[in-house]
Sequence to fold (605 residues):
Amino acid sequence: MKDNTVILSGRGVTKVFGFGANKTVAVDHVDFTFRKGEIISIVGESGSGKTTLAKMLLGLVSPTEGEIYFDGELRDIRTHKKKREYWKNIQAIFQDPFSSYNIFRKVDAVLLDCIRMRGGGNLPYDEKLEMMKRACSFVNLKFEELTNKYPFELSGGQQQRLMIARIFLLSPKILLADEPTSMIDACSRATILDMLMGLRNDIGMTPIFITHDIGLAYYVSDTVYIMEHGRFVESGTADQVILNPKEAYTRRLLSDVPKLHEEWDLSTV
Amino acid sequence: MSKVILEVNELTTNYVTRFREKIYAVDHVSLKVEEGKSVGIAGESGCGKSTLALSLMGYYFAPLHYSSGEIIVDGRNISGMDPDDVRKTILGREISYIPQAAMNALNPTQRVINFIEDVIQAHYPKTTKKEIYELARERFELLGLPAEVLRKYPVELSGGMKQRTVIATSVILSPKVLIADEPSSALDVTSQKMVIKMIMDLMNKGIIKALIFITHELPLLYNVTDDIMVMYAGQIVERGTAEQMVFDPIHPYTRALMGSIIVPEAGLRDVKLAAIPGTPPNLKNPPSGCRFADRCKFVKPECRAISVGLRDAGEGRAYRCIIPEEDLRKAYQSEG
Ligand SMILES: Nc1ncnc2c1ncn2[C@@H]1O[C@H](COP(=O)(O)OP(=O)(O)OP(=O)(O)O)[C@@H](O)[C@H]1O
Ligand SMILES: Nc1ncnc2c1ncn2[C@@H]1O[C@H](COP(=O)(O)OP(=O)(O)OP(=O)(O)O)[C@@H](O)[C@H]1O
Ligand SMILES: [Mg+2]
Ligand SMILES: [Mg+2]
Fold:
């Protein structure tokens, strides 16, 4: 699955908010190399800079310092046109499925937008319909039940699936998933993770999970980056980082997770 | 057997929608919590956990309506009580409830101490501000929160601190029962642990006598509560001790839930998570037989025809399935 082509990398990527006494270094000179098809997790506690980094990778926030390389070249998203081109390659899903949709667009319009973004705007309607049906069936939704509905008329689980159906149609090279399952019950989480893994296999997508759930990171990823105060303090294969953590910070994150076969020591907080 | 603090018998409550349809989100639920014990409630999104929490307080307002059943708090039957009386004499004093996402519902223009004044004066109008401050300070310190927090506005507190403040405030009148609905799901692991430690302290220091803890995080429930109940489509499908429910589930749904637990432990990467295909039934017109039948691997024709109640499995355990326990266990064994 993973080949050695580097899809996204960064050198000295930094984001500073505010200045003077209000200065926050949200992301502090991070270096990373993400390979095609590799499943990456970025783990850290609240405020460690995960979302800020994700926004820089997406091109929603520009770095204060440092360079981001996409597909072997220095990323250039200075014009609107170039940005739109870039977004064909990188997409994101966020924790709250609600906020990700335009509430005034019906479900089929949401899906048609995706087809248009991929340059399928002029395809005959039958063909578009076929694509939408395929995307829905990939995520176990019945297209017929969704047409004419607005996203807020769907259940939480259906919204989540619709979000993945969108990704299926967009077929980005990279998918950033920021806390995609933190409010989701265990079973639905398993379903969603299966679907995301399916996308990696079907369309060769590189998924990047951003989470404070170190168990999730261990389960899904090849490579784990641990983030503390805007820096990557430890990275490596999931087994290295989670089963043999070197940094005290990583060990603390691990010990704070409730487990099944080990005592959860509450006296340490 | 020690004293029963909360007893609920066959409680049924429903929402009435804009189109006058009834949604039975809590359907004949029974439970019992003894003094010093905690019960966890787990289940998929939309199965009725939060509705059960609301219903347990006996405090009903549209669109939620009481339909039938009993709620007995420390020997006192509160079912069918007038909502105004419930608000004045039960909420905060007998039962307290921390709603899902409570910490984001704090009034941003009030200092923490002002909430506490509101809570206490609603019940004891004669208490002076000075007395309230003293009580609050003492209680916050007992729970490991700095007294400075009392003078702060919600925006000045981190997520974890805000949540602990909400909890400390909601138990200021030392209620017998605390119902906590997903109190730590929005927090990172370290803040979550602090919140949990505080809830455990409430029990250990005798501030509350019984705890009902709602979350979809099963490893968390396992570490926090004595007993666990699993809900599916408005009904309890299984209950037992935390140990039994996690390591030896009887009901196929419980088993699937437990099969999707993710914890950072060696060997986890080698298992395939148990995703359950399909979605839960619509609670507007749930199937007359077993509600889980459409998604169950072990379904038989009679499952769809007959609705079973909870079956006793000894030692306080119960499960809702037409297939007997031995047969389910055999089926699990042959699955490996
Ligand atoms: N637009 C902004 N202006 C000023 N400061 C910001 C802004 N966005 C983020 N920050 C600060 O940058 C730091 C990192 O925030 P970020 O949201 O990236 O953390 P996170 O790791 O995603 O946390 P969480 O787990 O809570 O989502 C925090 O101190 C935050 O307050
Ligand atoms: N105000 C309402 N009017 C009508 N139906 C409602 C209302 N609130 C909730 N419901 C329905 O009642 C059922 C139970 O909802 P509830 O919020 O209790 O679920 P939950 O188990 O707490 O889910 P979650 O894990 O997502 O918090 C759902 O099917 C929901 O759609
Ligand atoms: Mg974030
Ligand atoms: Mg709920």
